[in-house]
Fold this protein.
Amino acid sequence: MSSEIDNKVGSFGYGSGFALIVVLFILLIIVGAAFVDNGFDGGYGC
């Protein structure tokens, strides 16, 4: 009787977790690209 509820919770947890990983991955790429660009520009730009 609870299998349907478990499936909904499982799919929701997987979806939210997957979205969180994607967001963190994108932020990591943006921060990494900015850090690399600053390095190639010759310093922190201060």
